Amino acid sequence: MDRELVRNFDDIIKCLNIALKNIDINGANIELEIKKWKFKITLSELKESLDIILRYISKWYEDYKKTNDVLCIDLKEYDIVSKESSYVLGETSLVDDIHSEEIDFIIGKIGVLLQDKIIGENFNVGTPTKENIKYAFKKLYFYLKGCSNLEDYKEYREKFYKILKEVETISSIYNKTEKLFNIEDKILQDIKFDLIDLVDETRLIKSYYAEWSLQWAEAIISLKMSESNMEVNNGW
What we know:
- The chain has eight helices and no strands.
- The mean pLDDT is 90.
- Helix 1 packs antiparallel against helix 4 (100-119), helix 3 runs antiparallel to helix 4 and helix 7 (185-201) packs antiparallel against helix 8 (209-233).
- By secondary structure, it is mainly alpha-helical.
- The chain has helices at residues 3-36, 43-67, 75-92, 100-119, 130-149, 157-177, 185-201, 209-233.
- It has two domains: 3-119; 130-233.
- 76% of the residues lie in helices and 0% in strands.
């Protein structure tokens, strides 16, 4: 098992249990602190959010011990936990007994490890194989689909859907020719810069779908460059 991931699980479960114990023992003082800093969260809402996070984290840890695979963490569940953690952090950042900054930081670290695994151990933008290219299209489509459907992004749904349709078009071109060369650079760059704008516009949503959409769009651009370089080097 990955020692870093195990340590992250152990640390966050410890922090969550301490925070919940502090609420049970010192709830009145924590409530006064929340009111002092004019946060809107109630003590019962705080406890409910921490319980939700702990329940999912504990489930992931047990699943990971059985499978030894970080992909046992469901992406939708991770999104729920990430949102709950961001909410708790925003409402209790100045309340020491809750340890919200440490909890949110560790959840972010688990997310990074999950992202690394999703990218795939064999994926490399410098190797424009059919497998790598189709993998990149699949991931780009997945995250754009999420941005087009998730309630959090409803204000930007039409913009993401427009990009999704463009990706479907260029993916179709690739599937017919099996060459990224046949996809115009301008189309790829337009997709990239549209996503850069959307990442900036949706930054406060505290979700990773837009950022990962951009990452996979950039991966396809890099794969196209690698494909072109290989053809030049081979004298094609």
